[in-house]
């Protein structure tokens, strides 16, 4: 996910596993994207530019860049970037630049026995596709010739409309495969057949999983897997080498333009076993209506509170949790979960609106209700997006005394306003599903 450090918006970087690589490979800072209307956006810097110097000093890592920013005395700074072999000087004001940067290393030199699925695009937080499972589904589907984009996949799966809150402040709450499995709904909606695997606690099924991954790659079928590089996020395995001891992958934390070498063996994955014809769009959309309504009205799926009840339980936990008595790990999980769930709620509802506008065109008899829903979600997203920078998360809260009662009350007030929007949407969803049922 993206965080702010000393005023610079950047992508979370990863630590290269082998010390030898650290010593022999030089990172480069590559421009990924911009904050709209930011100084960097207006400066003439372009995506794929390479940052060479900051204030006349060579810079290769995000750590170095932030140290230089902290030491800057002047009110403006000269940035040297490399573009198509030419060095360019660009002047920016002191402070937040508003540029998404990523540390990149030279491409991996594949071994002689490497088996690779070519041309799987990169993953990046800067694209706004922050549901990592669905972003991987999009890449896999597009590679297999299924032309569905992230927003539509987010919609037909119901994930753009869901809210889960774990009973124990678990950061996995927004993961579409936890609680109600919207992730599997996405695969089914795209006609993708699959088999899921989980690494056993004793690791005895590791050879079976490794074999399944290799066989899938041999068939030119990418594998969706979690925890490959740095964090508990989903990525795509697109190749293997060294007799399957090394997986080649795409994740949100890669430092290369080429595929990255996985640092860890995944503990959960989906192997695509085939594909069948996809249902007509209107049928997929109508099925999503039922899923959305079920997610809104079902109180919980196992340990995950869902829908309207999730808002109530989230607010209750903010009011009643004794953060001072939590050990450091549990407190850190609570802060991470709070910030991540809030961020995902804001961004998901932003995706919900364009999905519904597309559906309204395809199902004209429901156009009025769907447009009304789209407007509700736009309002909810705007409310949350404008305030999420102030929501406590793991980047700004380090101890329980920093998460004050006043801060929690401000967040509760925002969640209560968002809940009002969700309740208004619920009434329309109930009308839509009832009407659809009566028309059958």
Instruction: State the helicity in percent bands.
Output: 40-55%
Number of strands: 18
Shape: globular
* Main pleated sheet: 7 strands, antiparallel
* Class from helix and strand fractions: alpha+beta
Please report the distance between the alpha carbons of the first and last residues. Answer: 44 Å
Radius of gyration: 23 Å
Q: Give the assembly state of these chains.
A: single chain
Which regions have little confidence, pLDDT < 50, spanning 5+ residues?
1-24
Number of helical segments? Answer: 12
Proportion of strand residues: 15-25%
Structure commentary:
Helix content is 41%, strand content 20%. It is built from twelve helices and 18 strands. The protein has helices spanning 19-24, 39-43, 62-71, 132-143, 150-156, 182-189, 206-218, 281-297, 307-320, 328-362, 367-385, 405-438; strands spanning 2-5, 8-11, 28-34, 50-54, 57-58, 76-83, 86-93, 99-104, 115-116, 164-166, 192-198, 223-226, 234-241, 246-250, 260-261, 268-275, 300-301, 304-306.
List keywords for this structure.
alpha+beta, Pdz3 Domain, 3 domains, seven-stranded antiparallel beta sheet, six-stranded antiparallel beta sheet, 18 strands, globular
């Amino acid at each position: 996910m993206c965080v702010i450090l000393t005023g610079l918006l950047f992508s979370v970087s990863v630590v290269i596993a082998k010390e030898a690589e650290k010593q022999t490979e030089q990172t480069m800072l590559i421009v990924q994207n911009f904050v709209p209307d930011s100084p960097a956006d207006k400066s003439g810097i372009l995506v794929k530019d390479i940052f060479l110097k900051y204030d006349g000093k060579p810079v290769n890592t995000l750590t170095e860049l932030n140290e230089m920013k902290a030491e800057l005395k002047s009110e403006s700074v000269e940035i040297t970037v490399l573009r198509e072999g030419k060095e360019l000087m660009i002047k920016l004001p002191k402070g937040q630049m508003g540029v998404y940067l990523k540390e990149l290393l030279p491409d991996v030199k594949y071994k002689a026995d490497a088996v690779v699925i070519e041309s799987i695009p990169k993953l990046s937080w800067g694209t706004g596709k922050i549901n990592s499972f669905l972003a991987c589904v999009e890449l896999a589907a597009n590679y297999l010739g299924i032309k569905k984009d992230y927003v539509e996949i987010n919609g037909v799966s119901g994930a753009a409309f869901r809210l889960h809150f774990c009973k124990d402040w678990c950061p996995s709450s927004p993961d579409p495969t936890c609680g109600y499995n919207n992730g599997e709904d996405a695969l089914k909606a795209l006609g993708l057949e699959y088999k899921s695997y989980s690494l056993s606690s004793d690791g005895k099924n590791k050879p079976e999983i490794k074999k399944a991954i290799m066989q899938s790659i041999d068939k030119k079928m990418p594998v969706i897997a979690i925890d490959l590089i740095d964090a508990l996020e989903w990525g795509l395995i697109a190749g293997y080498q060294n007799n399957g001891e090394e997986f080649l992958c795409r994740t949100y934390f890669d430092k290369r333009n080429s595929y990255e070498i996985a640092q860890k063996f995944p503990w959960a994955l989906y192997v695509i076993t085939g594909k069948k014809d996809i249902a007509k769009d209107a049928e997929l959309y109508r099925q999503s209506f039922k899923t959305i309504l079920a997610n809104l009205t079902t109180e919980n799926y196992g340990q995950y509170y869902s829908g309207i009840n999730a808002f109530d339980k989230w607010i209750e936990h903010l009011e009643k949790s004794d953060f001072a008595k939590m050990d450091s790990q549990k407190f850190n999980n609570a802060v991470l979960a709070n910030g991540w769930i809030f961020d995902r709620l804001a961004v998901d509802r932003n995706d919900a609106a364009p999905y519904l506008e597309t559906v309204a065109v395809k199902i004209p008899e429901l156009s009025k209700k769907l447009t009304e829903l789209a407007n509700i979600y736009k309002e909810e997203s705007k409310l949350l997006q404008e305030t999420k920078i102030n929501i406590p998360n793991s980047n700004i809260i380090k101890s329980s005394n920093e998460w004050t009662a006043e801060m929690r009350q401000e967040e509760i007030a925002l969640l209560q306003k968002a809940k009002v929007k969700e309740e208004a949407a619920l009434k329309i969803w109930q009308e839509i599903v009832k009407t659809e049922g009566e028309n059958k």
